[in-house]
């Protein structure tokens, strides 16, 4: 009987020890789980507090850059428009360099008394720099009855011709040349030749007019004077 009682006590003691052990293990697991959860929550809180300032800073910086660039672009366009306007206003004061050369063969042609032959018209531009060379009939005195007319039609006047002796044959054909250039109150757009004699002039072989235009600029008015 005594042995049975002792065995029962030992069994109860072992059960008690095992129960304490199980309770202790479960308690540690719960504590660890709770601590892990707390750490995760703390980290989550830190992330939540850290991200918005970064995003806010990035957004502000981006907006600032876009706004500044957009403002700069508009200013640049305004500046380009102002520059274009200035260029347009000054366009009429700037010469354009060109090279327009024409050779007119007069062989076999005739020019009636007091008539003219219109050779060149640069309208709506004026000739700022040009040249005329004419190989035309002349007398023994190196003079010619043909005028080279320049000006803006209908206001054409005889040009002052320079005689080129080495390339002339007095009594047959002589070579003359003249410069053509506009001034503020005397624009040049038209070139013609006129018979200044009382007889018809016939042009022999090799009679020529050579016209060269080097610089032009817009006229103040696109039409000829009335």
Q: Notable features of this structure?
A:
226 residues; alpha+beta; Jelly Rolls; 2 domains; five-stranded antiparallel sheet; four-stranded antiparallel sheet; 39% helix; 34% strand
Topology overview:
Elements: H1 2-90, E1 96-105, E2 110-111, E3 116-121, E4 125-137, E5 146-152, E6 155-158, E7 162-169, E8 173-180, E9 190-195, E10 201-202, E11 208-218
Antiparallel strand pairs: 1-11, 2-10, 3-9, 4-8, 4-11, 5-6, 5-9, 7-8
Folded structure, characterized:
It is a single chain. About 40% of the residues lie in helices and about 35% in strands. With about 230 residues, it is of the alpha+beta class. The protein has 2 domains: about 1-95; about 95-220, Jelly Rolls (Sandwich). A 5-stranded antiparallel beta sheet has the order 1-11-4-8-7, with no helix packed on it. A 4-stranded antiparallel beta sheet has the order 3-9-5-6, with no helix packed on it. A two-stranded antiparallel sheet has the order 2-10. A hairpin with a 2-residue loop joins strand 5 and strand 6. It is rod-shaped and about 170 Å long.
């Amino acid at each position: 009987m005594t042995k049975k009682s002792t065995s029962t006590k030992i069994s109860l003691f072992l059960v008690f020890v095992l129960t304490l052990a199980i309770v202790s293990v479960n308690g540690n697991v719960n504590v660890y789980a709770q601590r892990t959860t707390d750490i995760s929550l703390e980290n989550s809180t830190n992330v939540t507090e850290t991200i918005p300032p970064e995003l806010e800073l990035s957004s502000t910086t981006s907006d600032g850059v876009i706004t500044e660039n957009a403002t700069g672009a508009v200013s640049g366009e305004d500046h380009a428009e102002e520059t274009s306007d200035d260029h347009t206003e000054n366009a009429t004061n700037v010469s354009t360099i060109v090279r327009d050369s024409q050779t007119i063969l007069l062989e076999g042609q005739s020019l009636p008394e007091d008539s003219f032959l219109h050779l060149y018209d640069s309208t709506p531009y004026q000739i700022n720099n040009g040249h005329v060379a004419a190989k035309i009939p002349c007398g023994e005195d190196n003079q010619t009855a043909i005028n080279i007319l320049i000006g803006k039609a209908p206001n054409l006047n005889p040009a002052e011709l320079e005689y080129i002796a080495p390339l002339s044959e007095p009594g047959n054909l002589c070579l003359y040349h003249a410069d053509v250039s506009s001034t503020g109150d005397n624009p040049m757009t038209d070139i013609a030749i006129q018979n200044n004699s009382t007889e018809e002039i016939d042009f022999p072989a090799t009679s020529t007019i050579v016209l060269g235009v080097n610089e032009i600029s817009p006229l103040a008015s696109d039409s000829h004077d009335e």
